[in-house]
Amino acid sequence: RSDWARICPGWANSSKPFVARLSGAPLAGALAGCGVLPLAVLRDDRGWLVDRFIVSDRTSLARRSGASAKAIAKRDIAAVGIAETSGGANLGQEASAPTKAKLAGLPALPFARLEMDALGQLPFARVTLRYDSDATERWFKSDPAVIAADLLLIASHNVAPDLEDARSEAGLALTGEADGMLRQSEVAALSLSARLVILSACDTSQPAPANDDPASGFARSFFAAGARAVMVSSWPIADNTQAVLMARYLKAWSNDGAAADPAALLQKAMLAVRARGGLLSHPRNWAAMTIIEP
Description:
Blueprint: H1 2-7, H2 18-22, H3 27-30, E1 43-44, E2 47-48, E3 57-58, E4 78-83, H4 97-104, H5 112-120, E5 126-131, H6 137-142, H7 144-148, E6 151-155, E7 158-159, E8 171-173, E9 181-183, H8 184-188, E10 196-200, H9 218-225, E11 230-233, H10 239-256, H11 262-274, E12 289-293
Parallel strand pairs: 3-12, 4-5, 4-6, 6-10, 10-11
Antiparallel strand pairs: 1-2, 7-8, 8-9, 11-12
Helix pairs in contact: 5-10, 10-11
């Protein structure tokens, strides 16, 4: 019970089972304040919460109209995938010395290529894939394919801010010129059309400094840029198992994503990956990702 109380403070004073408190009340209201762990990892005597609920984090950044997104035929969907597979050796050519040192220690992500392969095999009208030295910060900020993409997948490293520098901010590692990072403030200055942005990197739900809301970090930046939903991770994710989850999710998105709730598709992908058993049955390898919506 102490663990549940730590995750959901509002539950601490109730003697009722957790899921019973959800029945008869909107999920978002019943789970107010449950932002420490992704809700998919919570369970009771009946099993995992995600087995019975579609879970997403809806922020208070904007008032929801209640209107559902207009469906887009697959032939009209544009997707962009960006993968940094070779590690940090070539990152940040114009970065400061401390940033270069931080980037240089980033390991290779060979399985990120599998995420791009899964995206490239989908029957979308236009799929743009960029790897390593072709996935530069300047390209990302200016290419029409990025600006117009309905689905944007970034498989890279999340570079944490320098906690000793109040002006420092997190960034996504991108190869080549400039400082080697797409920082949160730079994302917010863009103009995007994405129905969904997937940040397939470690700890991308990490909130901004002096804030405990996951929507205050990368999610807020992408919302400011125009994205309608952002998928983020709650802890360091393994390159190999993340590729499996993303392949399942992208397949579901291809089949239903033009009309379906992205959180419902994530639920399907999580359950499918967990059902494969072995290493994939551990929640560390299927429950890290969460959909955040404005």
